[in-house]
UniProtKB/TrEMBL annotation:
Belongs to the Nth/MutY family. DNA repair enzyme that has both DNA N-glycosylase activity and AP-lyase activity. The DNA N-glycosylase activity releases various damaged pyrimidines from DNA by cleaving the N-glycosidic bond, leaving an AP (apurinic/apyrimidinic) site. The AP-lyase activity cleaves the phosphodiester bond 3' to the AP site by a beta-elimination, leaving a 3'-terminal unsaturated sugar and a product with a terminal 5'-phosphate. Binds 1 [4Fe-4S] cluster. GO terms for molecular function: class I DNA-(apurinic or apyrimidinic site) endonuclease activity. Keywords: 4Fe-4S, DNA damage, DNA repair, DNA-binding, Endonuclease, Glycosidase, Hydrolase, Iron, Iron-sulfur, Lyase, Metal-binding, Nuclease. Residues 77-224 form the HhH-GPD domain. [4Fe-4S] cluster binds at C226, C233, C236, C242. Pfam families: EndIII_4Fe-2S, HHH, HhH-GPD. It comes from Streptomyces hokutonensis. The gene is nth. It comes from the Bacteria. This is Endonuclease III. PANTHER family: A/G-SPECIFIC ADENINE GLYCOSYLASE/ENDONUCLEASE III, ENDONUCLEASE III. Signal peptide: none annotated.
Length: 291
């Protein structure tokens, strides 16, 4: 069901809603209730994804990588930190340890020193050296392209595995990170709180072929507009489809000031982003140590 939210009460319109009073701005938003059928939910969810695809035609994984090994390591390192910080750190790591064989035989103290800026560097060092050893010993130094093999690697869970499968091997997967969890619950796609249940519920709303790009679209939107603490509702292009409209700043001018990355005119998270992102006006992130 869609109902209008006016900044001022106006006269009733023929369809039972209300026309915006003179000088006010009306945003028609989805009213969240249990009357929404599964079919209606599927239609709304897919429309949101189509809208996001138009807003972020350049959506991409925001970790720099050149091969599956770099992607799996970078994704493990991204826990409890930003992709930007990982991208500023991994050039030195991969310059010194370009292959699983190199990292498997590395001195942990030297790796720790490189990874220190990412936080939890001792645990992350143990994970990336451990997964490198597993790649060498169990997979001939190659990153496997199957979910059941990837999750056996130290530090690799389903989220990391689907990032690798979707972006290094072209195999569909849903990446349920903190942004994804927050947004799909705000949109009432699911009430689930556990990642595996969220993955199953959302996956059932979309064809499998959409899963990887859906993940990028949702995560891009969560990082740029639909923030955790103060979503920029007044600058959100999909506000009419959002049951949670109004949780954040609804004034358009104030909301614009909350936009992040290229939507706010600022650099993105990758030092070496895709050309499509640059063509759309995106700016590369600065290298580690720059102002």
């Amino acid at each position: 069901m869609v109902v209008p939210r006016d900044s001022a009460v106006g006269e009733q319109s023929p369809d039972g809603g209300r026309k915006a009073a003179k000088g006010s701005k009306r945003v028609a938003v989805v009213k969240s209730d249990k009357s929404e059928s599964h079919t209606a939910l599927v239609r709304r969810a897919r429309r949101i994804n189509r809208e996001l695809a138009e807003i972020y035609p350049y959506a991409h994984p925001e970790l720099d990588f050149e091969n599956p090994f770099q992607l799996v390591v970078a994704t493990v390192l991204s826990a409890q930190t930003t992709d930007l910080r990982v991208n500023q750190t991994t050039p030195a790591l991969f310059a010194k340890y370009p292959t699983p064989e190199d990292l498997a035989g590395a001195d942990p103290e030297q790796v720790e020193e490189i990874l220190r800026p990412t936080g939890f560097f001792r645990a992350k060092t143990k994970s990336v050296i451990g997964l490198s050893k597993a790649l060498v010993e169990d997979f001939g130094g190659e990153v496997p392209g199957r979910l059941e093999d990837l999750v056996k690697l130290p530090g690799v869970g389903r989220k990391t595995a689907f990032v690798v499968l979707g972006n290094a091997f072209g195999r569909p997967g849903i990446t349920v990170d903190t942004h994804f969890q927050r947004l799909v619950r705000r949109w009432k796609w699911t009430e689930a709180t556990e990642p595996d249940k969220i993955e199953a519920a959302v996956g059932a709303l979309f064809p499998k072929s959409d899963w990887t790009m859906l993940s990028h679209h949702v995560i891009f939107h969560g990082r740029r507009i639909c923030h955790a603490r103060k979503p920029a509702c007044g600058a959100c292009p999909i506000a009419p489809l959002c049951p949670a409209y109004g949780e954040g700043e609804t004034d358009p001018e104030k909301a614009k000031k909350l936009l992040k990355y290229e939507k706010g005119g600022y650099p993105g998270q990758r030092l070496n982003p895709p050309q499509a992102y640059l063509d759309a006006g995106g700016k590369p992130a600065p290298p580690l140590g720059s102002a």
